[in-house]
Amino acid sequence: MCREEASELSSLKTQLEELGVPLVAVVKENIGTEIQDFRPYFAGDIYVDVKHHFYGPLQRKMGGLAFIRQGVWQNLMRAWKAGYQGNMLGEGFVLGGVFVIGAGNQGILLEHREKEFGNKVENEDVLEAVKRIVPVQ
């Protein structure tokens, strides 16, 4: 499902570039050709957080019981119907998120942490947050 969200966020790349904001993904691992396989869905730079600093000291996870949640199944079906397929490599229970981080001391302007697999951020919310970034002089 992260491929679906990556593709949707990538649709903002031109608008982000016009605003002087890069599109960046931080992933937790690179097993086999995982990043290479992800590249067609994401138009920005991709970094591997080898030490998992970006994910914080307590990684947010959803265990196997996630698959009894109706929302997870709805999100899986939405992604599948849109033609997105995931991979079965690595540790797949860590929840992701989307952040808009301002310049200088502005800090985090948007923080969207997945509540369950496939819980996506709204592109409009991302653009609103990006437009609040004040460039450092």
From TrEMBL:
It comes from the Eukaryota. It is found in: Cytoplasm. One of its GO terms (molecular function) is antioxidant activity. GO terms for cellular component: cytoplasm. Coiled coil: none annotated. PANTHER family: PEROXIREDOXIN-LIKE 2A (PTHR28630:SF31), PTHR28630. Belongs to the peroxiredoxin-like PRXL2 family. PRXL2A subfamily. This is Peroxiredoxin-like 2A.
